[in-house]
Amino acid sequence: MTNPILENSPLPLGLPDWGAITPSDIIPALDEAIAVQREAWEKIATNPEPPTIENTIDALEDSGRLLNRAASIAYTFTSSIGGPQYESIEAEVEQKLTAHFNAYYLDKRIYRRIKALDVSHAPEYVRTWVDDELKHFRLSGIELSDEDAHTLMSLDSQIAAAQVEFNHRVIKAMSDNALVIADVSELEGAAPAQLHQWKQSDGTFRVPLENYTMQAALAQLANPQTRRKLLAASLRRGFGDHESSDTRSLVLQIVRLRAQRAQLLGFSSHAELVAQREAAGSSQAIMDLLTKVADRAMAAVTKQKSTLEAMAAADGVDFEVADWPYYQEKLRAQIGLDNDALAPYFELNATVENGVFFAANRLYGLTFHERTDLAGYVPRMRTWEVRDESGTTIALFQADYVTREGKSGGAWMDEVQMGSERDGTLPIIHNNMNFPEPKNGEPLLLTWDNVTTLFHEFGHALHGILGRTYYRSQAGTSVPRDVVEMPSQLNEIWASHPEVIAHYARHYQTGEPLPQHLIDAIVASQHIGQAYDTAELVASMLLDQAWHRLAPEDVPDDVEAFERETLARFGIDFVPPRYRSTYFAHTFGGGYDAGYYSYMWADVLVGELEEWWHAQDRDSDGGFRREVGQEYAEKLLSRGSTRPFMTSFKAVVGHEPSADAMIRLRGLAD
Question: Rounded to an integer, what is the distance from CA 139 to the centroid of its chain?
């Protein structure tokens, strides 16, 4: 029997035939792909000929083609479809890949071949490949004794299993802790369409939870007691109210295992180990940045809090943190910003095609051509063929915008297939969101935050679409983790650019453009909420660092007490973290462990780039021109990891990054 994951797809660009793939195909395909790569590694390791670029680097790159396809397809199904049928598959995939790559990075034979390569006269991308790979080997334990290497593999296996279980419980906690309301009067302020979505067959109303702490519904709910109930339900996730979604023991287990791993590798902490492989360089540099921003943010929060307290007092409400979004929305309304008034102008399809794609066309010359003949893994998924200015196809872009049971929370981009000159492949890129599915064929209308999310995730997509590299391993988002968020956060600036917003913000029924007073309100409100948003974000970043700066013997036994003491130490009160430890999937689910600061570091880079972009202004266009986008794409975005990131960054901006521009742009300057 053939396995559709292993077969070369006949579809354009090698797009997986999603409909032909079943859960039972995933593990056999992964096993076969792993075996193929292991065999190739053995041939490279035992090759009697002196190492060359062709018989070592090229051969190593070639060895991973099949596994790259199998692993990316597995990730797509486990994250985007999810649910019970994929939970055991996800755990097995994680274990197999962890063991597989441990075997590679602990193989001294391959390490010696790479180290012996003479690349002094090779192209820069080859020299960078060698430098990065040798560093990865060293940070992965290549210099350990055989006994310690065995211990490392055991630790990695335990960490992988615990991370998968943590993610499953976090998803379940969103369901377990959903707020159930019996009396509809308690939901005053919610839109009729929202009430319709929340209503259950027994007549109650079930308010689902989003993956972060402060729930979007808090901004609409007029009843302060309901707001408090909703925030309390969100904050209690994973703290033992429901045994099946209690994550406290997993948090402590993961922290301890990571600390032991770092110690084994010769580092004082997991945070220091992680910092060594990222652009920021050291854990202390990260802490210096975060504490500086935390101080500025909390000072700004204190000032804004007094304004909101006065507004609440006028309503007879004793102000609490659950009231912040509601009165912040009122503050926005005072300058004319009204989400209910905005929503009809932000229909999903128009925002994507006339906003997100329009900006990409103007800046990078891209055009998007829908391919209704190319199906996704769910019926609502859409597919576009991406072409450059010459009309040449350069990528496929697929988007899955709506939420459903089992799907991972939040929003993300993934590269189903990376573009690579050596592989002869073009990028296949996905964006995933969790917008609520409209009822009865109604249009999907967005909030302003949703619009920003669309532009953000498409910034990630551009990183993959515009990548131009010879090796697959250097393509697209294969850059230091604390750089990954830079293109996405930068792309957000175009959502409110006058020419862009005028192009997509039109009433879905009448076609009338968004009134100028609402556009002015959006622009005027840019700094409203920035202090709070920054404070809740930096609170989570400091928690992430604090957990991962611990030595094994210092790991506490009380998650809640450690959180409370950590936030108090850094002067963060009143504002809860964007993610509490028990539902902090970015760090305890893997991927951003000791690296959640990346969003702030990326903001530092974005601050510099945004000021550079605006310095290219001509006729008040804010640099919104093809030649400016082309310079950014050619010198930085398309480069992947073909050269040190800071080389690419300085090629555009001209100097090292400083936090000052970010502080100015967030409205946190004195």
Answer: 24
Name the percent of the chain lying above pLDDT 90: 84
Query: Which DSSP letter does residue 343 get?
Result: G
Residue 589 backbone dihedrals phi, psi, to 5 degrees: -95, -5
457 as an active site residue: the answer is yes
Q: Smallest Cα–Cα separation from 483: which of 667, 647, 665?
A: 647
| Helix or strand run (H / E) with residue 401 | strand 393-402
- Give the whole-angstrom CA distance, residue 205 versus residue 200: 6
Exposed e or buried b for every residue in 306-328, given b needs 16+ CB within 10 A? eebbebbeeeeeebebbbbbbbb
- Per DSSP, the chain holds a count of helices (H) and strands (E) of 27, 7
pLDDT in tens, 367-378: 999 999 999 999
How far CA 364 is from CA of 162, 413, 420, 458, 519, in Å, comes to 42, 19, 19, 13, 25
Provide the whole-model pTM: 0.85
β-pair type (428-435, 412-417) = antiparallel
Query: In degrees to the nearest 10, what's the CA dihedral of 522, 524, 529, 531?
Result: 140
Task: Go through 442-462 and write b for each residue having 16 or more CB atoms within 10 A of its CB, e for each that does not.
Answer: eebbbbbebbbbbbbbbbbbb
Does the CA dihedral 55-57-63-65 come out positive or negative? negative
Neighbours of 23 (CB within 10 A): 15
Query: Count of residues for the chain?
Result: 670
Contact of 587 with 577, CB cutoff 8 Å: no
- Rounded to 5 degrees, φ, ψ at 555 are -65, 125
Q: Which of 61, 457, 536, 563 is catalytic?
A: 457
CB within 8 A of 288, min separation 6: which ones?
none
Q: From CA 345, how far away is CA 459, in angstroms rounded?
A: 22
Q: Is 191 helix (H, G, I), strand (E, B) or coil?
A: coil
For tokens 């211990």, the residue is 151
Alpha helices, DSSP H only, in 106-223?
108-116, 124-139, 146-176, 192-198
Q: What is the pLDDT of residues 359-403, one digit of tens each?
A: 999 999 999 999 999 999 999 999 999 999 999 999 999 999 999
Helices 23-45 & 65-76 angle (0-180, nearest 10): 150
